[in-house]
Amino acid sequence: YINTLVGYWAIQQERGEVYSPSTGIELPTGAVKSPDVAWVSDERLATLDQDSDEQFLKVVPDFVVEVRSSTDRLKKLKSKMENTWMANGVRLAWLIDPYKETVWIYRADQEIEIVKGFEGKTLSGEEVLEGFELPLDRLRAK
Q1: Which end of the chain is more exposed for a tag (fewer CB within 10 A), N or C?
Q2: Are 74 and 102 in contact (CB under 8 A)?
């Protein structure tokens, strides 16, 4: 659902590319990760070697989303957000827990913001995904 919404936003804005969890992203540390949603700006895409036939995308996304599944450990996901995504230069990241109806918002060089409760709330793509909004009501665990 989130991947579709971000993809639709990117098409409308004609900006960047959206990647699904099936895309392996190789980070500067050499770690290969696959977030639930990743968006890479045109500026960062321009740094890619166009002739490369690498197996993994070698660019740090501007924006990532991780959605906790019933088998995910929250502590491990939080560590991934801080020590993998944010430490490598992601500008905005959301860790969404539909079971606890909680979102952790990570921004480069800022404190983590916690949003509790989904009813009637919307996340903003801020200056990273300008104009993008994600209504949280639809993300509630069934």
Answers
A1: C
A2: no
DSSP 72: -
Distance, in Å, from the CA atom of 4 to the CA atom of 6, rounded to the nearest integer, reads: 6
Average pLDDT by stretches of 10, the chain with 142 residues? 95 95 91 95 87 78 96 95 95 97 96 96 97 93 70
Cα 87 from Cα 14, distance rounded (Å): 28
Question: Residue 121 phi/psi, 5° resolution?
Answer: -105, 150
- How far is it, in rounded angstroms, from Cα 63 to Cα 109? 14
Integer Cα distance of 7 and 87 in angstroms: 25
Instruction: Please enumerate in sequence order all residues whose Cβ is within 8 A of that of 90, keeping only pairs 6 or more positions apart, or say none.
Output: 60, 61, 62, 63, 64, 106, 108
The torsion angles phi and psi of 114, rounded to 5 degrees, stand at -115, 130
